[in-house]
Queue: 3 jobs
Job 1
Amino acid sequence: MVIEAGVHPTATPLWRIAAASFVPQERRALLDRPLRRLPVAAILLTQALLTLRLHNLANPDEALYIDAGHAYLSQWHGGPPARDYGSYFSGFPYAYPIIAAAIDSVGGLALVRLVSLVLMLTATCCVGLISARIAGPVHARAAQLLGMALAALSASTLFVGNLATFDAPCCTLVLVAVTLAVTRTGNLSALLAGLAVAGAAIFKYTGGAFLPVVAALAFLATRPTTRGLLRTGVVCLTGGFFLVDVYVLERGFIGAGIAFTTSSRTAESHRSTGLLLSEFARGAGVLLLMSIAGLLALHHWRRATREILLALALLAAGLAIPTSQLRLHEYTSFNKHAVFFALFAAPVAAQTVLIRSRVARLLVVLPAAYLALVMALAHSAFMFSEWPDPSHVMTAVNKANRPGTYIGVGADEIGYYEKSQPQFRWTEPWALYGAGPDAVRRAIVSNTYAGVFYTSGSSGTQSLDENTALVARLLTSNPNYELVGTWPKHKYDLNRWYLWLRKPAAG
């Protein structure tokens, strides 16, 4: 439900008068309420359609998280112990994976992804409320709609909305916390904001970085200063208490995961500064320029210090994660994490509605909306087809029907679809590669695996490329393995899959 608090009562727009004229006079007031909500519904429907147009097999992270949830549920029902996911997951393993696995049991991957879409639609509604609050009552409605449209027309928003990972619940809970901090003034809303940001940090550890952001926004948005300080304290105490409670009590279980994915993260997929800036420009460049224009409009026409500080804090918070990954030269999840920038910057960009000249306003908004739409369509399609498509590998393995253990990058993804084939066991190569080149040689020379698969081309990670090259050389010189097929990595990639199978025993 979209709450339209703080909207200034203005004259009814001409299009609503025209639409209501088709019904008798006594029914027009009844019809006007759904008509008021029509633009919001149209934006959300557009976001949903643009999100659902994206198609691909399960992302490796989706497959891993859902299968981890199934492993925990099986363990709790007397099955074998689950792996130690807490040492490398980017969120609490007992949170999203359990929920995703339960949903997967009902409706499969499509339903889990649909839940992500609903969450991202909620985040878009939150963006509208924040935009309206900053713009003020006179321009609240226009700012709400523009902010929602800009959030919806973001490649990362569309991408995360169709991805069954930790990201959608984390983003949405952060935006709920920000909305409660910025659009409300009571202590109850501050308490709920603290709980929301703590929930975000449990779903994904990155969410914990937004606790001080939400606290600062609660202070900036509240008058008088003493009440603002009180609300800030409530946010910090509530959020901090729950985070400390979980993180400290479970530090032995998730401490390594927090360090590996967040606090002590190092680049897994190194890319140059220029390439990362190019990716950011494609995915969020238009929104960044619109945000700068929104800040200037807010300063020039509204001249409200508190609202300007709110906008600056939002923009700084949105840039924090992309800047951190840029500093590390980390490409993994770079485009996906740009969703935080999209959702935080959209309310700032929406302040362009304050431009008083209608011509100037249209010259800013319309070209920006068009460019945002084109870039969102192109970049989200690229992002959603970036991971390899292993369908040919699965088909070839099933056709050859040689039971055993298969190893390769993408095994989690294949294993998600091959649950009904227990004679095939799928394993990622990270433990083997981590044991060193000698362990890799022993495994291949001793014919340990029924099959080995890999993709050509650089992964962006030197150690992975070196191990892949070593495996390819060892398989080529091993007479007990045969290359049974090679296929495109995916339809937009010139690199290829290679599948080697162990030859059947003679006789």
Job 2
Amino acid sequence: MIFRYFAAFIAAALLISYAGPIVLKLREFSLAAVVLIGVAMMLVDLWQSLKTKGE
């Protein structure tokens, strides 16, 4: 169970650290909106997968 939380944290950190600098450098509102929607969708999916009983 701890491994699932650790993997979820690492996945979220990697996505944010990959997309963050691109958004900050380009400073486009539309790109930032798309990235924020993508991060929100990923976090909701991670939350739902962590709530279900795993293997």
Job 3
Amino acid sequence: MSVAHIMAAGMGGIRTAGDLVAWMQLTQRMKITEAKEYVAQKLGVNVIDLVDEELMHQVRQDLNIATLPMIADGATGMVAKCRIAELLGIELNSVNKFKSQLDFSK
């Protein structure tokens, strides 16, 4: 359901910053305006730039947090999700579980 909401919200999902804004709305219960401002600050861009596909492609590529189209040697899947969680300062159960499975000291 959350993916459908992200796409329906019209911010372009992973092509821009729609997925990042949606994460803040879902995990931190932020209103959309607050979520956009938070994400823009974390990315170092203006709020209006969050929907610019060309600019956001470059920002996402620089931060290695997944892009569309996918680029060679770019982060995808869980690696990208881990980077996004760290960048936004949020806890995601799937990321925590993934990281705990990588802990070979147990």
